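Deliverable D5.2: sample structural annotation.
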Amino acid sequence: MKAFLSSISIVSLFVCSVAWARAAEPAAGDDAPDFSLVGSDGKTYSLADFKDKQAIVVAWFPKAFTGGCTKECKSFREQGKAIRAFDVAYFTASCDPADKNKDFAKSLELDYPILSDESTDVAKAYGVFNADRGAPFRWTFYIGKDGKILHIDKEVKTESHGKDVAAKLEELGVAKKKN
């Protein structure tokens, strides 16, 4: 009986810890977790840089130089004009080292920066880090000028993601740039 009660306690502790981890995951309406990350262009970008100035899109991907991530980043490049029609700063992001993301961006001739979170601290704060795989989930965060999360896309389609981002910005009512 004692072993049974001990097993129940361990299971209860596990269930509570899983529930707490999920509860800590940010949701639409929450303040976006702060970040300060180096981009593939060598500049450091932080959430505070855009507060009260521009909306932000951060599209997390698992690993540079892989098939799906290549398709996703190319889609962002190919749809850059449609995305830049909005008053938005946009990035892709991974937990790869900055040098690897720099090489990846260069190989794809990207016209936007890839953010590097080698420590995984920011990915964990955003709830995207998958410890089992050692890489982030493919989730995209839409953050308003006020720093609040407008939407989280957890069903990213790599080949059409750039087009999908532009459509979601329209749907969310993100302001268009003034000519």
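Annotation notes: Residues 75 and 161 are 6 Å apart (CA to CA). The chain is about 35% helix and 20% strand.
The annotation will be released with the project's public dataset once the embargo ends.
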